[in-house]
Amino acid sequence: MGKLKGAACWYPFWDGRSYCYDFYVEGTRYRRSSGVRDFTAIEIAIEVAKGVHDAAWKRALSPFPTFEQAAHLYLAEFGKNRSFVERLIVYFGPCVRVDEIDAFTIKQCKADLRKPDWSDGTARRHIDVPLKAVINNAFGRRPERIEDKVRTRILTPREFERLIKVAQNPPGTVCDPDRRLLKMIVFLMGSGATPGEMFCVRAEDIYPETGQVWIRGEEPGAGKTVYRSRMVQVPVWAWKLIGELPSKGRVFLSTRGNEIVPDGERGSHVIRQFHKLCLAAGLSGPDESERLVLYSIRHTSATWFSAQVGDHDLLIDRGGWASAEMARRYRKRPYAGLADELLEFGFIFGI
User: Tens digits of per-residue pLDDT, 35-57?
Assistant: First the structure.
């Protein structure tokens, strides 16, 4: 007996042994026996078939991925336990969603896939661990793998002296007729500020009588937060090298004399000129394991300040860091004799 004409697609039909259903939902075919083998129990078969149909649509419209989709994503991201995960994919098939796999389902899976000679530890490694890893990754409960790329390259006082000399008399490869790169690198070293904070400094933020500069906190496009608002003391040697600054507006301009809005999109011209400056000073080349960038100066400044002043709390306040741990990431371990070398070159902080 086939399907009744005009009946719903899921309506069960008798195949001679049991009532079956056969329908498609979003391209997936559902074709099997309802398990009802009594020809007179059509009402029960209807209830079973309709339940499967409704569940299939609920699954198709669910915001949750299937286990198969989640497993392929896990393998693409991490590539771990591939043979175990592929076995699980076959077990759950293309339809079971990750939100449908509860504690009971996990236990059932473990019972079905476990081999007789496996110990509890082996069963856990082959089934529990990869299964939960896929589910946790799908739900965002698995910590993302983040490669911690802490900068290690800092400048020695001698190297910074070389960079200053080249910035004072830039070669023809560097487009900086008004020596604006010199002002930038010296301010960054003397203040410990970030490049983004530097580009936000305005004329009214500078206090010549005390040698201090107000570092703005929240600034549209600069990606800073309130706790970073602070007053920094810029040393005398730095002011002497910085020289005259604009009397209005932003004071640290591009090498072409334009204001730079620290939105992550502008300022690339300054960065290119800085790299050329480093190359001319012999501080950056193909053999360098870590390229010097403007942010390297902030790391150097924190290390120098720590070596000479030695006050970690003051270092945290000066750098505007939210925690002591973050300050430690910037402050590298000073090599022996750094404090004396700083004095020798005249790089004295705090005055």
Answer: 999 999 999 999 999 998 988 88
Query: Mean pLDDT, 10 residues at a time, over the chain (351 residues)?
Result: 72 92 87 92 93 83 83 87 91 88 92 89 89 89 59 89 95 91 96 90 93 81 61 94 94 89 66 91 69 90 91 87 84 85 89 56
Same domain (yes/no): 91, 198:
no
Q: How far apart are the first and last CA of the chain?
A: 98
Tokens representing residue 324 in the block: 């002591």
Name the pTM for this structure: 0.59
**Residue indicated by tokens 């175990």:** 84
- Does a structural domain hold residue 5? no
Same domain, 78 and 226: no
* Whether residue 307 is found in the same domain as residue 222: yes
**Spatial distance between the Cα atoms of 231 and 317, rounded to a whole number of angstroms:** 9
Angstrom distance (rounded) from CA 42 to CA 39: 7
Full residue range of the structural domain in which residue 48 is found: 13-60
284-288 contacts, C-beta under 8 A, 24 or more apart: 288/153
Q: What residues contact 151, with CB distance under 8 A and at least 6 apart?
A: 290, 295, 296, 299
The two structure tokens encoding residue 344: 């020798």
The answer to whether residues 24 and 85 belong to one domain is no
Q: Are residues 80 and 166 in the same domain?
A: no
Tens-place pLDDT, residues 212-239:
999 987 666 555 545 578 999 999 999 9
Across-strand partners of 250? 202
Q: How many Cβ atoms are within 10 Å of 307's Cβ, its own excluded?
A: 21
What CA–CA distance (Å, rounded) separates 236 from 211?
A: 7
- Indicate the number of domains in the chain: 3
What are the residues whose beta carbons fall under 8 Å from the beta carbon of 81, sequence distance 6 or more? 129, 130, 133
* Cβ–Cβ under 8 Å, residues 227 and 249: no
